[in-house]
Recover the amino acids of this structure.
């Protein structure tokens, strides 16, 4: 049976710190803007279930974009003359440039993994401009994921990154969903996952700054999977303890990629948080 | 009943690996030797094109594994349970978070074969998909 999904894909040309970028994004729905950030080395396809869920899109304009170098967002000019290494500031700058380019007012920003980390910085820096953040698998400090094999001439980077990250799924994750995420990871550009993990493992440390988030201005919801060994539940609990008024929930039986691993499972936890953003 | 790490258990495991449909698809380049060490016990898998052609139950110094995984029995027991607990569900998880689970030898060979190796390791659990 054929079916056309309600998701549309478009490109926006946007300057980030004076540098032109062509950024791909998918969107669906109407209402409060909900910007969704993919994980390291992946792209917006991870959000397809949320983008197809009328319970969300009836109330939110859901937008998922590909970071530069990821998915269908081309790298900036002269990319071949620089090593790709994402930084916290550069990452936050792209996110803000995206919502400004689209004229989004008081968005909710939701991210997973490195996206769950950067939403914390976005909340620190721009809390007056936001409705709130939803951090999936959030950590304020997460060393340890980087290794030299992730971008190595004697190793198939796509296969390694995909297998390395498949282990982050819960053992009860439906097999087809694990493999879907594996496929997305296998399609990443050379060195892109390693460059993202550079941000996550070395550049990112929000342990002090997140204490300045005022949840009266910017709501904070945190959801973390029981089987996430990268951003562990204990690490998310530490984030929650540092942000007065934040909400944290452990997602039983879930891994590091809830939106693609088990969307119905995530939805049980996510809907109350999204409802809270609208309250 | 075959118990890990007895010979009968490894025979079952060898058969499971060699009948695996996925490894028949992805294993063509996976030819190496690697060890599994459980406390003081050591086994060496001889792998040819994604098939375990031999399990050396009492390897000597001429067994020449390129790499190996070493851990106490208590850790292997958690990994082998049908629904392993958090941090023990994948060898990558244990390498990051379980200090006594160690990758020894040439990690490059292991990571060159990461996809097939991950499948082969997860087949240590009988219930692997």
């Amino acid at each position: 049976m054929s079916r056309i999904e309600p998701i549309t894909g478009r490109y926006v040309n946007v300057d980030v710190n004076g540098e032109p970028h062509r950024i791909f994004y998918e969107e669906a729905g109407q209402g409060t803007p909900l910007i969704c950030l993919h994980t390291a080395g992946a792209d917006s396809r991870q959000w397809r279930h949320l983008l197809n869920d009328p319970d969300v899109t009836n109330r939110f304009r859901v937008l998922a974009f590909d970071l530069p170098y990821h998915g269908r967002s081309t790298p900036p000019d002269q990319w071949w003359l620089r090593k790709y290494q994402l930084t916290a500031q550069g990452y936050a700058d792209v996110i803000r440039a995206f919502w400004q380019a689209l004229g989004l007012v008081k968005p909710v920003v939701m991210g997973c993994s490195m996206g769950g980390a950067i939403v914390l910085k976005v909340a620190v820096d721009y809390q007056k401009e936001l409705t709130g953040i939803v951090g999936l698998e959030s950590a304020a400090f997460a060393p340890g994921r980087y290794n030299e094999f992730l971008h190595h001439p004697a190793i198939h980077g796509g296969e390694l990154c995909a297998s390395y990250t498949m282990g982050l799924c819960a053992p009860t994750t439906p097999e087809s969903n694990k493999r879907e995420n594996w496929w997305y990871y296998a399609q990443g550009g050379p060195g892109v996952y390693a460059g993202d993990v550079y941000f996550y493992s070395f550049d990112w440390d929000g342990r002090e700054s997140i204490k300045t988030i005022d949840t009266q201005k910017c709501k904070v919801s945190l959801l973390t999977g029981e089987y996430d060994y990268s951003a562990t539940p204990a690490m998310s609990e530490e984030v929650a303890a540092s942000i007065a008024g934040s909400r944290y929930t452990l997602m039983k039986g879930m891994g590091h990629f809830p939106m693609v691993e088990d969307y119905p499972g995530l939805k049980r936890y996510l809907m109350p948080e999204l409802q809270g953003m609208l309250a | 009943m075959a118990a890990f790490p007895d010979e009968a258990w490894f025979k079952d495991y060898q058969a499971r690996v060699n009948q695996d449909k996925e490894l028949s698809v992805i294993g063509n380049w996976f030819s190496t030797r690697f060890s599994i060490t459980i406390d003081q016990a050591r086994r060496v898998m001889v792998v040819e094109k994604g098939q375990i052609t031999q399990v050396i139950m009492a390897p000597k110094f001429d067994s020449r594994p390129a790499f190996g995984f070493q851990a106490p029995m208590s850790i292997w027991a958690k990994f082998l349970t049908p629904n392993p607990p958090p941090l023990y569900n994948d060898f990558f998880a244990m390498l990051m978070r379980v200090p006594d689970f160690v990758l020894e030898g040439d990690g490059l060979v292991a990571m060159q074969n990461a996809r097939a190796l991950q499948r082969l390791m997860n087949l240590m659990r009988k219930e692997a998909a």
In short: The first strand of chain B starts at residue 32 and ends at 38.
